[in-house]
Amino acid sequence: MKCIALLLLFAAGSGEGFGAEPLPEQIGRAGASGWRCNVIQLDPHDDGPDGFNYWDWDGDGDLDVFVNFEEGGYSRLFFNPGRDKIRGPWKDYIEFKNHGNCEDSGIGDLDNDGDVDYVANGGHVYFNPGREKLGSARNWVKMTLFEQEARCPVVCDLDGDGLKDLIVGASAWYKQPTSNKHEAANWERYELGEAKWPMSCIITDMDGDGDDDILVQERKQQGTFYYANPGKGEVTKPWPVKVIDSRPGGMFMAVGDVNGDGREDLVKAANKICIFLRTNDKGAPVYKRIEVEQPAQPASVEVKPRPKGVALLEMNGEPSHPEIVIIPEYAAQLWYLTVSGEGMSAADWTNTLMDVPSPESRKKMDNAFLVDLDADGDLDIATTEENGGWGVIWFENPAMDKAGEEKASEK
């Protein structure tokens, strides 16, 4: 009740409504399955949080959260209040103002000083001033590589020189210079290829040759493909493109072994959940595509859900067969898919709703980010909710609570 009272005060102070549902009454309440939705910060002004990054920036042992606000044009670093206050609003944060509309963000060490930096909208890099000074946004050094939007910024060592580089828009990358790293003119840009509207840009060894390739899920034109790493001496040239599925459509993608055969599979959130089961061990990947229908939604859900976020999360006690968690974009209930057998047909997959209260009030959610925010030993599901007022949220995994109940009942 204390958590709900605090959030009611927060909402009252904003002077804004939250749509048709009495939203604050649903915060922190659990459904029959035990899952509950907790709020880091509400979004009463429709600033549109749309991206989620986590790291222990202040070194206190708890994971902090960096969020970009698409319509608001700013980003905030929220400091974790600790396990005792984790379910309430996170009141301690710093804000980076006026970097423009920002639909995506990323993190990583881009000046090789051991601290994790922040990338807003692809082109704006904020360099971490170190733990002693990070509590003021004025201490973070901003570098602008370009102004236009570039989705899916990813920090990784692309050329193998030991320095982290920056991939932007799943179509180009910037090489980290050896000196004067905070000056944009020193960051050389190289083209990878074309990606019109990338949703996921994932670094992984697709062909098993020992180097990192770049898997791209693109929703409008190219479909699902990967850039095959041409080798260290050729990385500054455009990379060869290998098509997995040329059909456009779908939203985010997850990578992992979903049927326990030791091979890395792909899952795409689409109108039908697309599961690409890998069937070979070496060389260019070969997949069998499985399409699974959506489950029936609760009576309170009046829209046709559009699957958007996706993640692989162990939920039923069989680590070799993780469940596929789906976050619908529009006003609907989350669900997960469980496999039986080898998963080679749609009949092998079962949908289960997650029963988080008030699904119809969450109007536009983003991707699924797995993170143990409450430090209880299980992974929670974090995301952002852009249009319904919920703001920056996380769905609390009830697994550890249930484990405690089981132990108590045994006694």
DSSP summary, beta strand count = 28
Indicate the mean pLDDT: 92
Largest sheet: 4 strands, antiparallel
The number of distinct helices, counting runs of at least 4 residues, comes to 3
Poorly predicted tracts of residues: 1-22, 406-411
Structure description:
By secondary structure, this protein is mainly β. The protein contains 3 helices and 28 strands. The strands form 7 sheets. The chain has a 4-stranded antiparallel β-sheet with strand order 1-28-27-26, with no helix packed on it. A 4-stranded antiparallel β-sheet has the order 2-3-4-5, with no helix packed on it. It is globular, with a radius of gyration of 21 Å. The two termini are 30 Å apart.
